[in-house]
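ok new one. same drill as before - structure tokens go in, u give me an amino acid for every spot. 490 of them this time. try not to just spam alanines like last time pls lmao
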């Protein structure tokens, strides 16, 4: 699915709840919800005002139908919640109840990726899996008009939107070949807003009175250094801590990100209110890193490169093709040279990088990789609860080979972390659960299966001469529903 496809679905269809940027739950089609630990049931109360774009009301039957079809066809959005659902019951027209296999305190988080579809339309489709859905009918703030996957998506304002109709008629999402072209369009007034990833463009944008910059320093984006644990000594915890100590994060923030980055924690986990603030990344300490490697017996050769068990510590580092990723790779490469590790940089497109690490088909085709993507919102992104037991303690573990005992099972450390995560997911007492969440993050930072290099600042640019009311608080994305329905033409 392309970028415009995702944007269109998020504007046309809606989930029961929305996970906000801080990890809290906000209402969408469901106005309220509650959990009954005695019956292991989550009950959602729908907003009675919600209607489909064709005028029919949104009902509990639609919710039940959507989830059951998602589970029946094994669609990806339902994959996280499906293993825990015993039944879905329609209590009344606007109340739906999910009976679970056991108490799961975080279940709404798991279920929030499913967008609700109208039963009266989809129940007449012979093969849902192959249906192209040429004219989507949803309940969101915009209705479908036209779509060209190579150029644009045009949506019309839903004047009957139950959370408040947009104050303008159309939303046009345009696709550009590169960010430079999008920024030129912004300067020319051809578009009203765009994301900014080329940080060197920000000073010139700030010189234009009609353009404002939104800087989100708590964005859900982290730069992660993946070490392939299948290649020693990446599988040695002490070695990873030495690598972690050698990274000059301040240099990365200053010179790769031009100041548009923040110091990270060593477990990329949100919501912020549950983040463990005690696991902040360490300052660079080359002497301490070298001392760890000396203690492991990895002596330096004549060329300054260390040798572990007869093998030179030399790896290929896959990096992104964008300027911040390239510069980050260069800094990490230079840092590693200071502790006797040689890295050779290889620029890789994002899609190729994802396939290289996560497809399960290239386990031995990469050594190290730096990749920027979202943090784990609660345990949804961190723990694959329904994965094989015992080995799959957290989502990316099989991809990088961490915690594998070599016989298809998990190491003691992996199993302990897995058990802790699963306990936290089930704990109904908020205070006890908070303590468990803190413990999970501390244990993750100690094991250090991946290394966080920085937390990305999300920068957006928008014009102020045509619209007012830009609202980026709990859902900071420029195209979030609260932002879009808060805009007013000047």
């Amino acid at each position: 699915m392309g970028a415009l496809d995702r944007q269109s679905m998020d504007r046309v269809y809606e989930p029961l709840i929305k996970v906000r940027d801080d990890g809290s739950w906000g209402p969408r089609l469901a106005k309220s919800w509650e959990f009954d630990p005695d019956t292991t049931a989550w009950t959602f109360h729908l907003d009675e005002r919600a209607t489909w774009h064709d005028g029919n009301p949104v009902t509990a039957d639609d919710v039940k139908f959507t989830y059951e079809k998602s589970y029946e066809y094994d669609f990806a959005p339902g994959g996280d919640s499906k293993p825990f659902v015993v039944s879905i019951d329609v209590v009344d027209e606007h109340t739906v109840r999910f009976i679970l296999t056991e108490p799961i305190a975080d279940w709404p988080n798991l279920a929030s990726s499913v967008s609700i579809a109208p039963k009266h339309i989809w129940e007449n489709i012979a093969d849902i899996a192959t249906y192209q859905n040429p004219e989507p009918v949803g309940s969101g703030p915009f209705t479908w008009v036209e779509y060209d996957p190579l150029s644009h998506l045009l949506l019309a304002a839903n004047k009957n939107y139950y959370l408040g109709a947009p104050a303008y008629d159309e939303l046009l999402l345009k696709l550009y070949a590169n960010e430079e072209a999008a920024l030129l369009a912004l300067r020319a007034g051809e578009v009203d807003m765009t994301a900014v990833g080329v940080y060197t463009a920000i000073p010139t944008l700030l010189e234009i009175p009609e353009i404002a910059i939104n800087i989100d320093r708590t964005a859900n984006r982290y730069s992660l250094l993946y070490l392939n644990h299948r290649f020693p000594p990446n599988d040695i915890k002490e070695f990873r801590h030495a690598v972690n100590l050698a990274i000059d994060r301040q240099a990365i923030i200053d010179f790769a990100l031009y100041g548009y980055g923040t110091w990270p924690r060593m477990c990329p986990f949100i919501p912020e209110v549950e983040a463990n603030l005690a696991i902040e990344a360490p300052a660079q300490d080359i002497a301490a890193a070298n001392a760890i490697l000396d203690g492991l017996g990895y002596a330096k050769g004549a060329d300054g490169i260390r040798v572990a068990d007869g093998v030179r510590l030399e790896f290929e580092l896959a990096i992104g093709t964008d300027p911040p990723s390239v510069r980050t790779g260069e800094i990490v490469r230079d840092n590693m040279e200071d502790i006797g590790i040689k890295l050779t940089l290889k620029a890789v497109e994002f899609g190729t990088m994802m396939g290289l690490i996560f497809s399960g088909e290239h386990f031995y085709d990469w050594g190290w990789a730096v990749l920027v993507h979202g943090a784990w919102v609660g345990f949804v992104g961190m723990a694959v609860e329904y994965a094989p037991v015992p080995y799959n303690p957290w989502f990316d573990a099989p991809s990088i080979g961490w915690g594998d005992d070599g016989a298809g099972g998990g190491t003691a450390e992996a199993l302990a972390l897995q058990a802790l995560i699963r306990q936290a997911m089930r704990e109904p007492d908020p205070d006890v659960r908070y303590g468990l969440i803190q413990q999970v993050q501390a244990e993750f930072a100690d094991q250090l299966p991946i290394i966080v290099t920085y937390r990305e600042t999300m920068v957006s640019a928008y014009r102020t001469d045509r619209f007012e009311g830009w609202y980026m608080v709990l859902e900071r994305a420029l195209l979030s529903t609260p932002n879009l329905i808060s805009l007013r033409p000047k």
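The CA atoms of residues 146 and 154 lie 5 Å apart. and btw The radius of gyration is 24 Å.
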